[in-house]
C-alpha cells in the first residue's frame, strides 16, 4: 500500500461520499470541503477532516477554485479529487491545482481544455478515426451545394444555423424538395435570430440511443471498460443507465470499444474518461458526441459489470501507480442497471422537491448496491442538485436485472420529499424499454402514460413552475 | 377595510424580484396586482418557481431582498386586497 496521504474531495452529495469511501479504503486520509448548508452532510460525517467554506451558493463555495485550493493546502492535502460537475472539467482550476504543487486526480489540464471545446474535440476524434456525425465540412454556401451534400450523407438531414446552439436554429428535412423549400427561409430566420444567416448540414438521427464507452489510461496503457446505455433520459437528464448497451451487434460493439480506446491513446489520456456516442439502431452506426474528462454519475454500472473500482483506480493512477488491469482482465458479468433517485416531483414537470427525509430505507438483498448522498433525517437543500442516491442492481441477464430493479424499488421506503422512484419504476415496466426498442426521446414521448399511474402529490397553492418562460438562467 | 394578506413562500430557495438581472422588478410597492400575478421567482436547484399573488390588490410591502435565501413560511410580500 502506498504511503498514506490526504486527499481533498472537492464536491458534495453522493459523489463526495463515494470518493471519501474510496480514499479511506486505500488507507489514505479523506478531507472534504463543504458549504455552510452541507456541514452536517453524510460526506462530512464520513470524512476524516472537514473544511467549511462560508456561504451556501455554489459560486461562493464549490465553484470557488481559489478557496478550494486554499482548503487543500490548509489541511496538508497532497491531492484533489473533483468528482463530477462543479470544477471537475475546468482546465483553469486543474492548472491552479497543479501550480499549487498538488496532484490533480484527472487528465492533464491541456487534455481537459482540448476535449472540452466542441471543435477541437471533434478534430481529435476525427484524427483518431472515431466516426462523427456526417455532415458538411463547415458552412454551406448555397442550396445547390446543400443538396449535393445532403444526397451524399442521406436524408433526413438537419439544416443548422452556424451561429445557433442549444437546439435553436435547426430544421429537419426529409427530401431534396423539402431542403430546397426550406433553405432560404431557414437562412432568413437564422439571420433574424442570430444576426448570421450562414448554415451547415448534419445527418439527422431520428431515433438515437445514447451509448457511451468508459475508458481509462495511465499515460502509457489505455483500455476500454465496455459500454453503457443512457437512453432513458428526460431533457438530457439521465434517469436510468445500463450496461452492456442492449441489442448491439458484436462487430459494432467491438468497433465502438476500439474507437474509444484509440481516442484515449491518441490524446495520451490519464485517469477515467467517457466517450459518448449517438447510436443509430436502424443504420447500425455510431457517431461521437463528446468526451467527458472525469468520473461520471453512472460509473457504478461499469464497476458492477466488470468488478473494478474506478474511483480507487483514479486515485492510484493519479498518485503514480500504473493501471492495475489489462484489457483482457475486463470481462462483463451479466447485466447492470442504475436508477437515479432524485428529490423531484414527476407530476409537476420534475420540479425539485427539497425537504427533510423523514424516512429513508434502501433495499437490500442479492445483487443490490446503493450509492447514497444522504441518510434518513437529512435534508435535501434547495441550493444544489436533487439527488438522494443511486440504486444499482446486477443480474445474469437484462430481464433478470429489470426484475431485480423493480423488486428493489418496491422495497425502497422514502418519505418527506417527492421522488423519481415511482416514475423510474413505471419506466422499467414499459414494454418498449423491456424490448430495448427505446431511444433518447422515448421517456418524453411517453411521459403522460408513465405518470398516469403515479399517486397525486401535494401540488403547490400560491406557486407555479416557472419554466421555460423564466428568462433567468443560473451559473453552472 | 380588508385585512392585508401576507404572501409567504411555500418553498425554500433563493428569492428573485426580477425576471433577469437587467430587467425591472416584477412588482414594486404601490403596484396593483391581479390574482395569480407573479410577485417574484424562487430558485430551487437551478429551476424556478413563480410566487403568485393569491388576491387582486395593491402591494403594500416587499420584505425580502433580491437574492436572499428563503425558508418555507417566510413572508415575502404584503398585499392589500382591492375589494371585499
Write the topology of this structure.
The complex is a heterodimer of chains A (476) and B (84).
Chain A: E1 6-9, H1 13-25, E2 29-35, H2 42-46, E3 49-53, H3 65-74, E4 79-81, H4 91-99, E5 103-104, H5 109-116, H6 118-127, H7 143-153, E6 157-165, E7 168-173, H8 176-194, E8 199-203, E9 208-218, E10 222-234, E11 237-243, H9 250-266, E12 270-280, E13 285-292, H10 299-306, H11 310-318, E14 335-342, E15 344-345, E16 351-352, E17 355-356, E18 359-361, E19 368-372, E20 379-380, E21 387-395, H12 398-411, E22 413-415, H13 421-429, H14 431-434, H15 442-445, H16 447-452, E23 463-465
Parallel strand pairs in A: 1-2, 1-4, 2-3, 4-5
Antiparallel strand pairs in A: 6-7, 6-8, 9-10, 9-12, 10-11, 11-14, 12-13, 14-21, 15-16, 17-20, 18-22, 19-21
Chain B: E1 5-8, E2 13-16, E3 32-33, E4 38-44, E5 47-52, E6 57-62, E7 69-70, E8 75-81
Antiparallel strand pairs in B: 1-8, 2-4, 2-7, 3-6, 4-5, 6-8
Describe the protein:
The complex is a heterodimer of chains A (476) and B (84). Chain A has 476 residues and is of the alpha+beta class. Chain A has 3 domains: 6-105, Rossmann fold, CATH 3.40.50; 143-203, Dna Ligase, domain 1 (2-Layer Sandwich); 208-452, D-amino Acid Aminotransferase, Chain A, domain 1 (2-Layer Sandwich). Chain A has 16 helices and 23 strands. Chain A starts with 5 loop residues before the first strand and ends in an 11-residue tail after the last strand. In chain A, 46% of the residues are buried. Chain B has a single domain, classed as RNA polymerase II/Efflux pump adaptor protein, barrel-sandwich hybrid domain (OB fold (Dihydrolipoamide Acetyltransferase, E2P), Beta Barrel), CATH 2.40.50.100. In chain B, 0% of the residues lie in helices and 45% in strands. Chain B has a 4-stranded antiparallel sheet, with no helix packed on it. Chain B has a 4-stranded antiparallel sheet with strand order 5-4-2-7, with no helix packed on it. The radius of gyration of chain B is 12 Å and the shape is globular. The relative contact order of chain B is 0.36. The model of chain B has no long low-confidence stretch (mean pLDDT 91). Chains A and B meet through strand 16 and strand 23 of A and strand 2, strand 4 and strand 5 of B. Strand 23 of chain A pairs antiparallel with strand 5 of chain B.
Amino acid at each position: 500500500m502506498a504511503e498514506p496521504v490526504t486527499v481533498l474531495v472537492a464536491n458534495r452529495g453522493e459523489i463526495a461520499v463515494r470518493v471519501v469511501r474510496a480514499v479511506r479504503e486505500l488507507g489514505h486520509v479523506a478531507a472534504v470541503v463543504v458549504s455552510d448548508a452541507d456541514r452536517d452532510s453524510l460526506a462530512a460525517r464520513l470524512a476524516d477532516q472537514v473544511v467549511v467554506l462560508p456561504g451556501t451558493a455554489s459560486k461562493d463555495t464549490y465553484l470557488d477554485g481559489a478557496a478550494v485550493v486554499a482548503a487543500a493546502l490548509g489541511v496538508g492535502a497532497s491531492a484533489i479529487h473533483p468528482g463530477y460537475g462543479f470544477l471537475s472539467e475546468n482546465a483553469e482550476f486543474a492548472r491552479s491545482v497543479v501550480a499549487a504543487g498538488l496532484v490533480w486526480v484527472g487528465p492533464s489540464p491541456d487534455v481537459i481544455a482540448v476535449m472540452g471545446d466542441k471543435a477541437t474535440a471533434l478534430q481529435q476524434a476525427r484524427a483518431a478515426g472515431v466516426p462523427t456525425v456526417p455532415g458538411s465540412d463547415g458552412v454551406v454556401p448555397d442550396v445547390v451545394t446543400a443538396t449535393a451534400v445532403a444526397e451524399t450523407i442521406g436524408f433526413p438531414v438537419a439544416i443548422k444555423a452556424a451561429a445557433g446552439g442549444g437546439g435553436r436554429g435547426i430544421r429537419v428535412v426529409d427530401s431534396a424538395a423539402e431542403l430546397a423549400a426550406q433553405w432560404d427561409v431557414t437562412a432568413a430566420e437564422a439571420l433574424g435570430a442570430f444576426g448570421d444567416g450562414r448554415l451547415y448540414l448534419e445527418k439527422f438521427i431520428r431515433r438515437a440511443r445514447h451509448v457511451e464507452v468508459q475508458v481509462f489510461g495511465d499515460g502509457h496503457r489505455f483500455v476500454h471498460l465496455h459500454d453503457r446505455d443512457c437512453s432513458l433520459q428526460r431533457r438530457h437528464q439521465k434517469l436510468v443507465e445500463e450496461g452492456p448497451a442492449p441489442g448491439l451487434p458484436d462487430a459494432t460493439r467491438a468497433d465502438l470499444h476500439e474507437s474509444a480506446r484509440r481516442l484515449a491513446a491518441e490524446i495520451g489520456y490519464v485517469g477515467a474518461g467517457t466517450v459518448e456516442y449517438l447510436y443509430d439502431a436502424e443504420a447500425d452506426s455510431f457517431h461521437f458526441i463528446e468526451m467527458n474528462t472525469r468520473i461520471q454519475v453512472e460509473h457504478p454500472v461499469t464497476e458492477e459489470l466488470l468488478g473494478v473500482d474506478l474511483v480507487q483506480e483514479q486515485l492510484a493512477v493519479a498518485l503514480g501507480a500504473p493501471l492495475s488491469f489489462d484489457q483482457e482482465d475486463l470481462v462483463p458479468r451479466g447485466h447492470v442497471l442504475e436508477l437515479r433517485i432524485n428529490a423531484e416531483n414527476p407530476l409537476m414537470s420534475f420540479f425539485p422537491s427539497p425537504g427533510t427525509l423523514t424516512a429513508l430505507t434502501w433495499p437490500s438483498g442479492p445483487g443490490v448496491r446503493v450509492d447514497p448522498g444522504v441518510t434518513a433525517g437529512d435534508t435535501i437543500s434547495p441550493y444544489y442538485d436533487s439527488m438522494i442516491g443511486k440504486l444499482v442492481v446486477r443480474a445474469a441477464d437484462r430481464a433478470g436485472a429489470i426484475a431485480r430493479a423493480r423488486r428493489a424499488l418496491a422495497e425502497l421506503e422514502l418519505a418527506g420529499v417527492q421522488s423519481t422512484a415511482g416514475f423510474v419504476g413505471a419506466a422499467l415496466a414499459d414494454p418498449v424499454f423491456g424490448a430495448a426498442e427505446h431511444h433518447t426521446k422515448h421517456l418524453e414521448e411517453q411521459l403522460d402514460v408513465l405518470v398516469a399511474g403515479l399517486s397525486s402529490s401535494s401540488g403547490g397553492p400560491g406557486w407555479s413552475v416557472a419554466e421555460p418562460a423564466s428568462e433567468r438562467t443560473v451559473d453552472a | 377595510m380588508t385585512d392585508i394578506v401576507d404572501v409567504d413562500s411555500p418553498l425554500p430557495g433563493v428569492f428573485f424580484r426580477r425576471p433577469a438581472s437587467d430587467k425591472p422588478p416584477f412588482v414594486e410597492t404601490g403596484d396593483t396586482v391581479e390574482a395569480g400575478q407573479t410577485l417574484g421567482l424562487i430558485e430551487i436547484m437551478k429551476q424556478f418557481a413563480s410566487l403568485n399573488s393569491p388576491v387582486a390588490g395593491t402591494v403594500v410591502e416587499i420584505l425580502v431582498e433580491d437574492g436572499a435565501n428563503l425558508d418555507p413560511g417566510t413572508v415575502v410580500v404584503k398585499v392589500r386586497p382591492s375589494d371585499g
